[in-house]
Amino acid sequence: QVRFVESGGGLVQPGGSLRLSCAASGSIGRLYDIDWYRQAPGKSRELVAGITSGGRTDYQDYVKGRFTISRVRATNTVYLQMSSLKPDDTAIYFCNVRPPNGDWGQGTQVTVSS
């Protein structure tokens, strides 16, 4: 019922910052719980962070203290502010509803390299 378009990725040096955006598209009938995932080359897609319809946030340990997920209800946009980026953060980042509907977008590429 709802699809998301990810943007904001890019190439940054270790220690740098990026803000990713997840914009809703299509018909929206409810306020969704939204998760950010990432998939590095040769690895499976993994959950990074999430935010519920009530605004509660959660993070995987490897991004705790470095990433912040937030949302703007008026525009149905979810953000992922990433700081202190590491080479291991290099991946394609996706967003999806919770639970994911199986229709993944193109994601946005984050590359952390010197």
Structural descriptors:
single chain; 114 residues; mainly beta; six-stranded mixed sheet; four-stranded antiparallel sheet; 0% helix
Q: Quick recap of the structure?
A:
Helix content is 0%, strand content 48%.
Reconstruct the topology from this structure.
Blueprint: E1 3-7, E2 10-12, E3 18-25, E4 34-39, E5 46-51, E6 57-59, E7 67-72, E8 77-82, E9 91-97, E10 108-112
Parallel strand pairs: 2-10
Antiparallel strand pairs: 1-3, 3-8, 4-5, 4-9, 5-6, 7-8, 9-10
Number of strands: 10
Largest sheet composition = 6 strands, mixed
Order of helices and strands: EEEEEEEEEE
DSSP summary: helix tally? 0
- Determine the oligomeric state from the structure: single chain
Going across the biggest sheet, name each strand in turn: 2-10-9-4-5-6
**How far is the first residue's CA from the last residue's CA?**
40 Å
The computed structural class is: mainly beta
Q: Runs with pLDDT <50, length 5+?
A: none
Taken from the alpha-carbon principal axes, the silhouette is globular
Beta percentage is over 45%
Radius of gyration: 13 Å
- Please state the average pLDDT score: 92
Helix content: under 10%
